[in-house]
Amino acid sequence: MFDDDTIVALATPTGSSAISVIRISGKKSISTVETIFSSVHYGKKLENQSTHTIHLGYIVDNIDDRSDSSNSSRRNYLDQVLVSIFRSPFSYTGENMIEISCHGSYYIQQNILQLLIRKGIRLARPGEFTFRAFLNKKMDLSQAEAIADLILSDNQASHELSLQQIKGALTSTIKNLRKKLLDFYSLLELELDFSEENVIFAKRSDLFSFLKDLEETLKDLIESFSIGNSIKKGIYVVIIGEPNVGKSTLFNYVIKESRSIISNIEGTTRDSIEGELILNGIHFHFVDTAGIRDPKDTIERMGVRKTMEKIQEAQVLLYVLDSSKNDRKKQKKILKKIQIIHEKNPLKKILVIANKSDLSSFKDFYNLKSKFSYFFEISAKNHHGIKKILYTLSQLFIEKLKEKNIIVTQNRHYEALKQSLKEVLLAHDALTKRVPEDLVSIHIKEALHHLGKITGEITNEEVLKNIFSKFCIGK
Ligand SMILES: Nc1nc2c(ncn2[C@@H]2O[C@H](COP(=O)(O)OP(=O)(O)O)[C@@H](O)[C@H]2O)c(=O)[nH]1
Ligand SMILES: [Mg+2]
């Protein structure tokens, strides 16, 4: 991974398009492109051009004897192109870079690439441009990872999250945390230095509040991962309830397709079916399930088991009930069921949906209403009241997004933060037990180490390989 070859890759997709961009980075970028480029201004040399300039000309095969005009028939004009020059350190990678914008044909793309390879440039490995940017301190590791995410993001919310990380919001938060930890560390060291003289630099209570403050910040970041991660991957909304209450009708309307079979025969939906929806820029996966009742046969039993699995995956549960069919006894039963689900899954939001409002005359049913923070009365069949549910869904997450200044989206960062918090808690504990200061500072050192992994100040080749292999070639 660590060489100084000059590298090339197609930065745009292979195949037909209006234009394609070929990227070259490394010491020999400009001199090599010079040998295959012929400017429209006769005699203009790329080597003499300054950074951030664009030049029109032709990519020409075999022009070593360009001065010999009688031999011009030997020139093989491949394409008319624009060549952009970025000189070190003012480029994406920090090295000398060239971008050739050619016409987007497979033939042209491949021929220019091969021409450059024949001239001694090698094909870039996945993520190698960004890796070099990281090595040349153009960005830290968390920013590089965000670039991979940005390319993959397919909705507004995850796009915003990656952009925020590229701009360095996480970097500066981590830097701040490290600074706090270092301050704390120096306080401890000072106390150690002067321990003989019995001088106290920091009151115990100050040290404790310092640690508490750190813990809070770390916890906040760790907590943000659950929202960050679900926004990145999409939020699972699982529709559950007894058979025949209208789950599939609601599902189909929400995802605007008739994918689920609707019928009044109980137990029709035996497998779970998924559909996608983007609400206010947030990606939701809706899952229609078999419903939960005592299954009548093996296939239905499998369906019910699958429903239970889907509940585990969900961030949100839509519990649908048939409001036209509820007597007091049934209400109690349902209430109990929801409570059990809630106890088992305290972190999941449960939206209770009373369907078939067009039929229900049994208003007594609204006893239930006061018991839930999210209760909706709808008619899935008449499309009545569904907008409100969707609005609430998107608000639930938009609000969370707004609450947090900074949101952690990478598993790697999440793990490092958790390990860091663990060490801070151990330090706290050690301080409480009045163990010698140098034992406290061991934990602080460890906490610093784990934070350093996020930004790449502390890293190993294995981790780097893993991160950059996820990129596409050309990035
Ligand atoms: N009157 C009325 N019938 C509905 C409504 N929603 C669904 N249904 C009917 O209830 C039956 C069961 O619906 P379905 O969506 O298959 O229920 P599921 O078993 O929970 O998936 C079908 O005959 C639907 O047409 C509604 O809002 N009002
Ligand atoms: Mg169904």
Structure description:
The chain is α/β, with parallel strands linked by helices and 475 residues long. Among the domains are: 7-139, Probable tRNA modification gtpase trme, domain 1 (Gyrase A, domain 2, 2-Layer Sandwich), CATH 3.30.1360; 234-378, 3-Layer(aba) Sandwich (Rossmann fold). It contains 14 helices and 13 strands. It has helices at 29-34, 106-118, 128-135, 141-152, 156-166, 169-193, 204-233, 247-255, 298-313, 328-344, 386-403, 411-432, 437-455, 461-468, and strands at 7-10, 17-25, 37-39, 53-61, 76-86, 97-104, 122-123, 235-241, 273-279, 282-288, 316-322, 349-355, 375-377. It has a seven-stranded mixed β-sheet. It has a six-stranded mixed β-sheet with strand order 9-10-8-11-12-13, sandwiched between helices. Strand 11 (316-322), helix 10 (328-344) and strand 12 form a beta-alpha-beta unit. It is flat. 34% of the residues are buried. Bound molecules: guanosine-5'-diphosphate and magnesium ion (MG). Residues 243-249, 262-264, 268-269, 291, 355-356, 358-359, 379-381 line the site of guanosine-5'-diphosphate.
